[in-house]
Amino acid sequence: MADILIIGGGVIGLATAVELALHGAKVKVLERGICAQAATWAAAGMLAPEAEQLDGELLELGLRSRALYPEWVSKLNHITGEDCGYRQCGIFAPMIGMSDWESHSKYIDRQQANSIQTGLSHDIAGGLWFPEDGQVDNRRLARVLLLAARSIGVEILEGVTVSQIAHSAGKVTHLATSHGDLKSDRYLLATGAWSKELMSLPVTPRKGQMLAVFDPNHSLERVLFAPNVYIVPRQDGSIIIGATVEDVGFTDGNTTAEIDRLLTEAISIYPSIANMSIQSTWWGFRPYAPNEMPIIGMSDYANLFLATGHYRNGILLAPITAHLIANSMGLESSGKNGDLQHFARLFSTVTAVGKIVP
Ligand code: FAD
Ligand code: GLY
Q1: Does 356 have pLDDT greater than 80?
Q2: Fewest beta carbons within 10 Å, which of 64, 183, 186, 254?
Q3: CA-proximal residue: ligand 1, atom 46 (nearest)
Q4: Residues 226-254: pLDDT tens digits?
Q5: CB of 347 within 8 A of CB of 297?
Q6: Quick check: CB of 284 below 6 Å from ligand 1?
Q7: Considering only CA atoms, which residue is closest to atom 4 of ligand 2?
């Protein structure tokens, strides 16, 4: 019997598992099988609360989480000796033609843009420069989280599918799984776009198609974030180009039309992409929740916690989500991270929504 059973081994489940285990909890993660379509593996890894133009509470959450990143990845590095590919490389949001962005505090003109990144399209008149936004290599991060979790005693049960959350008198009694019933004091649902299979939460998939090209010259240093495409350079020369946002359920596959569109848009921003070779294409499913607000905190069931619905920003929001869950389980004092309790309360209110699927 574990103290805490976590359903879902994506970035949210794993980040929380590490956090809880570091607070002394005995944690097990149940993952039905790591797959390329889980958002954690499909993502671009941008840490972009500003470029994504988040606002209100979500912006505050995003800025706090971005601020946690340097210490978080260095903690993971300390535990594992591995690097997650975190870089505060800045994100440039280019502007083609005229717009009213010139009055924006983050506006830079064409000349300034060329000084932070060479090789931009001549059509770019300027844009917004967000030097504090950045990126992490999300696949490396996921591997490092798996390693970190295992090395501090978290049990990762891969190949275990949870088919039902059994409950009685407002409390979860056990999980019915492909490997029999599993019991714990507390449970965390972190099942991303698939959350509705277990609870009637308002979380639905939003498909994203992506591709990677290879830049042998490593010429792109900044993330470029345009209205219809973003371009994310990795340290190994890969450049990630994304992404579609499609409300098509769990429809598999890349389409030629969307990959063509993404490439055309990318080349119009950074022309040398036209000469780069295509490395791979893939797709994945973002967990969309209403108003793009993640669902984090206690559920209506006394010992069941929720961390899902992170939509476009779950890589960014992983460290703060882990803190919030630890906090709502009473494992962390609010002092260390300012007024986290305020956020925990806020998200608990938001989450009083779902019933367990019978
Ligand atoms: P997931 O990564 O989907 O993990 C859920 C896990 O639960 C899966 O591994 C699944 O197998 C498991 N599971 C589900 N049901 C069960 C069950 N019944 N039993 C056992 N296991 C189960 N975010 C950013 O911050 N920056 C970005 O640049 C960015 N780009 C993105 C680009 C794309 C194309 C996509 C798709 C997403 C992007 N995101 C980005 C969003 C981010 O990837 C997600 O918000 C985040 O990964 C969600 O993590 P998760 O752990 O909740 O879900
Ligand atoms: N945050 C980028 C995406 O979800 O596509």
Answers
A1: no
A2: 183
A3: 314
A4: 999 999 999 999 999 999 999 999 999 99
A5: yes
A6: yes
A7: 312
Residues with CB under 6 Å of ligand 2 are: 44, 46, 208, 242-243, 286, 312
pTM here?
Answer: 0.95
At position 59, the amino acid (one-letter code) is L
> Which one-letter amino acid corresponds to residue 144?
V
Q: Best substitution site from 211, 229, 286, 317 to test ligand 2's pocket, by max atoms within 8 Å of Cβ?
A: 286
Instruction: Calculate how far, in angstroms, residue 117's C-alpha sits from the geometric centre of ligand 1.
Output: 31
What's the CA gap between 331 and 286, in Å, rounded? 29
Q: Which residues neighbour 71 within 8 Å (Cβ) at sequence distance 6 or greater? A: none
Residue 159, SS3?
Answer: coil
- Angle at which helices 56-80 and 314-328 cross, to 10°: 90
The bridge status of strand 155-158 relative to strand 27-31 is parallel
Q: Which ligand is nearest to the CA of 194?
A: 1
DSSP string, 31-86: ES---TTBHHHH---EE-TTTTT--HHHHHHHHHHHHHHHHHHHHHHHHHS-----
Tokens of 149: 């979790």
